[in-house]
Design a protein that fits this description.
alpha+beta, Serine Threonine Protein Phosphatase 5, Tetratricopeptide repeat, 3 domains, Cathepsin D, subunit A, domain 1, 391 residues, 9-stranded mixed β-sheet
Length: 391
């Protein structure tokens, strides 16, 4: 019998020394943590709830529940559980960090955008749909072309446009992009005025970030859409913004129309996830990042194997991520599904270099992107925490 090199103990059994692996004596990880790492948020929540039934102050269970409440935007309960975990274990850095993240989102929501709807919704036509949707807006009195990309945080502007519009960077952070690349993203205070269609919005946090295409002035992403019931209507070439208060009526209409409705999760600070499936492989957690130009999917190495997808190593591509160009291997997935919504023959890429998902505390199967949604209507309902797909 073969044993690992790292040994915890030796036992003398009938004169024979038997080496035992170190993890033989380690307690198994809590079921909630195991489920969370696997990306099974529903199973994790149930496991943590069972632990809380026996000990309401259990720091690990409270921390797990707080994290899941944050992902489902249940902010008040998330903060209560995070503070309970921190009070039970003041040295717990994860609890301290999560408490700060929750408090920051609550503060951002309270600060909020300032806007009002003259009617029940606004429709903003796309200036183009491919390779990614572009909308025309006015920022601080200057016309701007913005890419719609749910992989982006909120409103990021090119350095050239920011200078023209009087937006100045005051701090810096690091962003993680395709291929595990990183790039410095400079943050700013707030844009004074953004006019989109007939809607005027003020008090918008903005950033200055690399924008690869010279004709594009910036990118608008998840943290902007979060303030609305937002529909990216690829099929009809438009962005539709409704007030969040329209959520319940919209959900009823979607159910009556037979649209696909799936739970979504918002992971700090702007990452949307939902569970999906590729081919006949296992269900996994996917980033809903619409900013993949000309691709509908990318997969991790583990997902590539599990989903029986074969990447074409003989025809490598260079794709442009937020951190610069990276090499990718193309493939075509026979079927990609979110709930009951399935798209056939989805073009995808496998990027061997780095891992952009390494900082998440759960397993990510990959990213579902532009070409998957290209002929549909995709709605982000951050009140119900649901994705709605209409063919």
């Amino acid at each position: 019998m073969m044993y690992p090199a790292a040994l915890a103990a030796t036992l003398a059994v009938a004169g024979t020394v038997v080496a035992l692996p170190a993890d033989r004596f380690s307690p198994p990880p809590p079921a909630g943590d195991t489920r969370l790492r696997a990306g099974d948020f529903v199973g994790a929540a149930a496991a943590y709830a069972r632990r809380l039934q026996s000990n309401r102050r259990d720091p690990d269970a409270n921390l797990g529940i707080a994290r899941l409440d944050l992902y489902t935007d249940n902010l008040r309960d998330a903060l209560t559980h995070a503070r309970t975990a921190l009070a039970a274990d003041p040295s717990n850095r994860a609890a301290a960090r999560l408490t700060a993240q929750i408090a920051q989102r609550i503060e951002d929501v309270a600060a909020g955008y300032r806007f009002s709807f003259e009617r029940g919704r606004i429709d903003v036509p796309f200036a183009q749909v491919d390779p990614l949707p572009v909308i025309m807006v006015t920022i601080n009195g200057r016309a701007a072309r913005l890419v719609l990309d749910t992989g982006a945080p909120g409103l990021d502007l090119s350095a050239a446009f920011a200078a023209k519009a009087g937006v100045k960077a005051t701090a810096a952070r690091t962003g993680f992009f395709a291929g595990g690349r990183t790039a410095t993203v400079k943050t700013e205070g707030r844009v004074d005025s953004l006019i989109i269609g007939s809607l005027a919005v003020s008090g918008i946090p903005a950033g200055i970030a690399p924008v690869p295409e010279p004709s594009i002035d910036g990118v608008v992403g998840t943290n902007f859409l979060y303030h609305f019931l937002a529909t990216i209507d690829y099929a009809n070439g438009r962005l539709i913004l409704r007030p969040k208060s329209a959520s319940a009526a919209f959900e009823r209409a979607a159910a009556a129309a037979g649209d696909t409705v799936v739970p979504m999760y918002l992971v700090p600070d702007h990452f949307v996830f939902a569970r999906g499936r590729v081919n006949a492989g296992p269900e996994g957690l996917f980033s809903i990042d619409t900013g993949g130009a000309m691709i509908g999917l990318d997969l991790t190495k583990a997902s590539l194997l599990a989903d029986h997808v074969e990447a074409d190593a003989s025809h490598p591509l260079v794709v442009m991520g937020g951190g610069g160009p990276v090499q990718a291997l193309p493939f075509t997935a026979n079927a990609v599904s979110l709930g009951g919504f399935t798209v056939r023959n989805v073009p995808g890429v496998y990027i061997a270099e780095g891992n952009p998902y390494r900082n998440f505390p759960f397993t990510v199967a990959g990213r579902i992107s532009h070409e998957f949604f290209r002929h549909s209507s995709l709605t982000f309902d951050f009140s119900a925490m649901k994705l709605i797909l209409s063919p």
